[in-house]
Structures are given as structure tokens and as C-alpha cells.
Design goal:
This protein has about 625 residues and is α/β, with parallel strands linked by helices. The protein is built from 26 helices and 19 strands. Helix 20 packs antiparallel against helix 22 and helix 20 packs across helix 24.
């Protein structure tokens, strides 16, 4: 294989035994470096772990690498465990972090860890997982970290070098293999220069048809159209319904391929799959997290066939999934960031824009931004597109489970851990002081609440260190004996409530009788937790259980069809599947804790009742 200069530079560092961080634009070819490590490791009978930020990306990497490396690839996520003894094991970063803390000896056989999308370290909700994985990385493992373009990559490398006392080399590639050409639609005109927007005098609404015709006339298809809302994706697909991008031969090929994929993924009788047919026969589709995972995979395969010409999708389609197109369109340059809507970060813009321009096929990629001057200033448009990418900033906020695992190892030496963090490395005195206070507050709360006593974890503490993210509520329920009182259905209801996050103004259906007592108990315990966290000024506060899916999951566990249980919730069908799979993961974590054999048996049965048919993620991966 002929490598680009930046790929060759990284490979030379790898051959010389160094850890490497690679910063390069989306679509530049970072994966080729990971493949080089994997090929080498397999040849030398060494182990490699490959981590990805989301399960969908883990699954896709498993499929891709299986084509290349066959039985040498395994996968381990909260949903799936296939071929775990393989020399190359793909997993989510959470699973890797948990292994470091819970069972470090299981990592002895692996010589490399590959972190895909390592800039996720500044994700407010999950960035701590990446930071902890790097802080506590076993000394024998070398690192390959792959990142989108970030300006402070050398600072990041210096931090890793400082805590592991070994040099980490950086490789920076700023040039895209396929250059991008930018356009703007404003007042229903398409212009090439952003400043030309200021000269448009006639105020008119932007029309989707005007833009798509412009793109089609300039041979700009296929096109990925990014939106920041599921309903918006579906609405725009409907708005384009009058278009037809396929000739008769292409239409027949498309319908034949779609039909065969629906048979393979058992979608023939799914209403949502049938409703997609009028779109796909015209070369149009939509794709978002609220859809059935199997239907999303079918749409992805249609797109790689090049028969699908326009896909309306949310931003997860840009995250590592290898789906390049000739053109990318932004519905707007604002999105929801955790708690509020704000203008896009430059890095996020290019994560998506980087899907434009297919290497080896296109001379350039085309990026269109739809601009409403009443919603965004032109200077902000220029900042997003032509500005410098944002630095990666630590979001370090250690979980209760991590503190318990570390306390078990370091006891009162725990405060010495914080100076190892990226947060400490790049923060001033005030931020450092607050981080230490927060960590100390969590430790004091755990001691006050009988998770730690006489310098050791109590039975409750040993339970809590296994259940990341839901430690206090589940541990208090366990300590009160509530787990033992519940049958399989109650355990499923309670675990689903612990993971569910309602959308704004989402309703809750009438609770089944079996869930009412559980909810009353959970509410009482949670109020006590919130009171203690408030007293210690701990933030963010522990997640509250929400019972929106109580009736849905109970009916599913009692054998009801998936299409029928959806009537008991206003949650999208894809989200229901995701929450059921998260429920299974929580139940597995509880089962791994030191609990009675009777409770283990009930949990095993609860998982069996949930993990069937469309919920079974392993089944989807095997059939794929």
C-alpha cells in the first residue's frame, strides 16, 4: 500500500516503538494507520484493543475489520460480546475504562490501545471516560489516538507523556485529500462567497427545491443533508417527495436491494420499513436515532450502493462512519449543545463537512450552508467555516463508581490521583481547587452514606463500584433490600427507569400496578440522595429515575409484539430499543456485583425476557 506522508510519518513512529497521536481532517485516511497496527499485531501474535465513542461505530468497525481480518476480530460492548478471545477486540471506551479499574489483569495480552475520535475527551457528558482511560492506562500498552483537527494536540501529547513517563509523538495533517468548495443559500439565492450574502436585497424564504435543483444541475449528487432534529429530517424528506433521482433501471435495482435487505434484517412486516419505500424508490431517505437500528443499517447500505442520492440525517452519521458523498448540506449552523442551542463549533462543522468529497472519486467536495440572517450573523458564519478549530478542554468529573474503585486501591491516597488528570494539567489554580473540592465532597458523601467504613469498601460500596452512572440510586435500593423483593418484571422496570431520559414535555403513560410501589420507593430514596448532594455542593447531580417505559418494558417482557408495545409510550421506536439495550447493560453490571445467587438467577431471567428479537443486538450484528 502507498501511504500519504502523514500516514508514513505515523507508521515510522509506530515501528520505532512510540505511542502516537494523529490529528487530521475527516476523510484524510487516519484509519489506515490503525489497520497497520492491527496487521502487525496479528502477525506477531500480539493483542490490540480498538475503542470507539458510540456503539454504532463499534459495530461498523467490527463489520469492516471482519472483512479484512476474519476471525481475528472480536467485539465487546454493553450490547454485544462476540469472539472475545480474538487478538483484536473492539469495544466502547466505557467498557475499556471499566476493565482498567475492575479487571486490569485481563488487559495483559494487549500491546496497543487505539482511541478513535479521541477529541471526545471534551464531551461534557462522557469525556471523563476518555480521560480516566488515559490516566490509568496499563504501563505496557502503547497508544494510537486518532482525532479530528485540534489546535492543542501537542499540549494533549505532553500531558500523556508527563503521566506515563514516555514520549508520545504527534502527527499533524492539515490538508484534506479532497478540497472543499463552499456555497451558501440565503434568501433563496445560492452564492459562492459568504460576503455576497450582504448584497442580496430581495428577502425571500429559502426553498429546498431551489437548492437541490442547483446541486443536481452541477452533478453534486449523492448528497448528505445534515439536520439537527429527527422530525426535521423526516419533514424535509417529505418536502422532497416530488423529486425523482432514479431512472427506471436504478429504481428496480434500488427496490430489489431494499427488499433483500429487509428480508435479511427481518423488516418485511415493520410499518416504518414499508413507509420508507415511496422515498427510496426515488433515491431519497432519512436516517436518525429514533429509527429501528436494523432499518438504519439498511439505509446505510443503500447509501454505500450509490443508488441513494439524497439522505436527510442527524449528525451521528458523520461520526467515524465511512459514508462519504459528493455534497454535504447544513440545514442551519446552530445546534443543541447539552442544555442550550448555540452556533456550531468549527470542529463539529468540519466533522460533518468532511463527508463531502469521495477520495479517489471526486476532485473536490461541495458544502452548502443554508443561512437565515435573522438567526445567525454573517460574521459568525465566517467564524464557523473559516475560523480556527476549538481546543480540546478537559471535562473531568469522576463518577462515584470510579472513586470507589480507586479508593479500594489507594485508600486515603486518592487525592494524589487528580494531579494525573488532563484537567489538572491545563487548568489554573481556581479550577484545580474546585475539582479537588468536588472529588473530596463525593468521597465524604460516600463515607457518610456507608459505602466506605474503616478504610474499606462496605458491602454497599462493593456493589456500587460495578454500576457506573447509576451508582447511588441502585445501591441504595439494593441496600434497602428492594432488589430481593422484586420479580423479573420489577427488575426490568426499575433498570429501565434508571437509564431513561425523557425529552422536554414528554408524557408518562399510566403506570402499571407493578411499577407504582417501585416508583414510590425510588422517589423517596432519590430525594434523600439529592438532599445529600445539595449539602455537599455536588454537581452534576445523580440522575433521577423516570418510569416512562414501565408499561412498555413489562409488556415486552411478557411476550408482547414490539409493534404493540409502542402504544404505551411516545418514545421513538429506535429510542425504545436503545433504552432496552441500556437496561440489559445495567442488569449485567448489577449481576457482576457481589449479590446472592437467587438475585443473579432473577436478573439472568430478566435479561432473557428483554433480549429477544429486535432488541438482540448480537443477532443484528451476526445477520449483518
Amino acid at each position: 500500500m502507498i501511504y500519504d506522508p502523514f500516514q508514513k510519518e505515523a507508521i515510522d513512529h509506530i515501528d520505532n516503538g512510540h505511542s502516537v497521536i494523529v490529528s487530521a481532517p475527516t476523510g484524510a485516511g487516519k484509519t489506515a494507520i490503525a489497520e497497520y497496527i492491527i496487521e502487525n499485531a496479528i502477525r506477531k501474535s500480539q493483542g490490540v484493543i480498538y475503542t470507539a465513542p458510540i456503539k454504532a461505530l463499534s459495530n461498523q468497525k467490527f463489520r469492516d475489520f471482519q472483512h479484512q481480518f476474519r476471525d481475528d476480530i472480536g467485539i465487546l460492548t454493553g450490547d454485544v460480546a462476540l469472539n472475545q478471545e480474538a487478538p483484536v477486540l473492539i469495544m466502547t471506551t466505557e467498557i475499556f475504562r471499566n476493565k482498567i479499574l475492575d479487571e486490569p489483569d485481563s488487559l495483559n495480552r494487549y500491546s496497543w490501545i487505539i482511541f478513535d475520535e479521541v477529541h471526545y475527551i471534551d464531551n461534557p457528558e462522557r469525556g471523563t471516560v476518555w480521560e480516566e482511560s488515559l490516566m490509568f492506562l496499563p504501563a505496557h500498552m502503547k497508544i494510537l489516538a486518532l482525532s479530528a483537527t485540534i489546535p492543542n494536540i501537542k499540549e494533549f501529547a505532553r500531558w500523556i507523556s508527563s503521566i506515563h513517563k514516555k514520549e508520545v509523538r504527534t502527527v499533524i495533517e492539515e490538508k484534506r485529500p479532497v478540497p472543499l468548495h463552499f456555497f451558501y443559500q440565503c434568501h433563496n439565492q445560492v452564492v459562492e462567497k459568504v460576503d455576497a450574502i450582504r448584497k442580496i436585497r430581495r428577502v425571500r424564504p429559502n426553498r429546498l427545491g431551489t437548492l437541490i435543483n442547483y446541486i443536481r444541475d452541477r452533478q453534486g449528487l449523492p448528497c448528505i443533508y445534515f439536520v439537527f432534529g429527527r422530525r426535521r429530517a423526516e419533514y424535509l424528506a417529505s418536502e422532497l417527495y416530488g423529486f425523482n433521482f432514479l431512472n427506471a433501471d436504478e429504481k428496480n435495482k434500488m427496490l430489489s436491494l431494499y427488499d433483500s435487505l429487509c428480508v435479511r434484517f427481518d423488516l418485511k412486516h415493520e410499518k416504518s420499513a414499508s413507509e420508507m419505500i415511496p422515498f427510496i424508490e426515488k433515491g431519497i431517505a432519512f436516517h436518525h436515532a429514533g429509527m429501528l437500528p436494523t432499518l438504519k443499517e439498511v439505509i446505510e447500505r443503500l447509501f454505500t450502493s450509490r443508488l441513494l442520492k439524497v439522505i436527510f440525517t442527524t449528525e451521528t452519521f458523520a461520526l467515524g462512519i465511512n459514508m462519504p458523498s459528493r455534497t454535504v448540506v447544513f440545514d442551519e449552523l446552530r445546534k443543541f449543545y447539552g442544555s442550550y442551542i448555540r452556533n456550531l463549533k468549527t470542529r463539529d462543522f468540519y466533522q460533518m463537512a468532511g463527508r463531502a468529497g469521495r477520495r479517489g472519486i471526486d476532485q473536490e467536495g461541495f458544502v452548502y450552508s443554508r443561512i437565515n440572517p435573522h438567526r445567525i450573523y454573517i460574521d459568525e458564519v465566517k467564524r464557523i467555516i473559516y475560523g480556527k478549530s476549538e481546543e480540546v478542554r478537559s471535562q473531568f468529573n469522576t463518577s462515584y463508581a470510579t472513586i470507589l474503585n480507586l479508593y479500594e486501591k489507594y485508600t486515603e491516597g486518592l487525592p494524589k490521583i487528580y494531579p494525573l488528570s488532563f484537567h489538572y494539567f491545563q487548568s489554573g489554580k481556581q479550577r484545580q481547587k474546585e475539582a479537588v473540592r468536588l472529588m473530596d465532597s463525593k468521597l465524604r458523601l460516600l463515607k457518610e452514606s456507608d459505602y466506605i467504613a474503616n478504610g474499606k469498601l462496605t458491602a454497599k460500596g462493593s456493589f456500587a463500584k460495578n454500576v457506573y452512572g447509576y451508582e447511588l440510586i441502585l445501591s441504595e435500593l439494593y441496600a434497602e433490600g428492594e432488589f430481593e423483593k422484586l420479580d423479573e418484571y420489577g427488575l426490568g422496570i426499575m433498570a429501565a427507569a434508571s437509564v431513561f431520559e425523557p425529552r422536554k414535555n414528554q408524557r408518562i403513560a399510566a403506570l402499571p400496578k407493578s411499577a407504582r410501589d417501585i416508583k414510590l420507593t425510588c422517589d423517596s430514596i432519590y430525594n434523600g440522595i439529592r438532599h445529600r448532594e445539595s449539602r455537599y455542593r455536588i454537581y452534576p447531580v445523580s440522575k433521577m429515575p423516570h418510569f416512562n417505559l414501565a408499561k412498555t418494558i413489562e409488556c415486552w417482557m411478557r411476550g408482547e409484539k414490539f409493534s404493540r408495545i409502542l402504544q404505551f409510550s411516545d418514545t421513538d421506536e429506535g429510542e425504545v430499543i436503545r433504552y432496552f439495550r441500556m437496561t440489559i447493560q445495567v442488569l449485567r453490571e448489577v449481576s457482576d456485583a457481589p449479590i446472592s445467587y437467587i438475585l443473579k438467577d432473577k436478573i439472568t431471567n430478566a435479561i432473557r425476557l428483554i433480549n429477544r428479537d429486535i432488541i438482540d443486538a448480537e443477532k443484528q450484528l451476526r445477520e449483518g
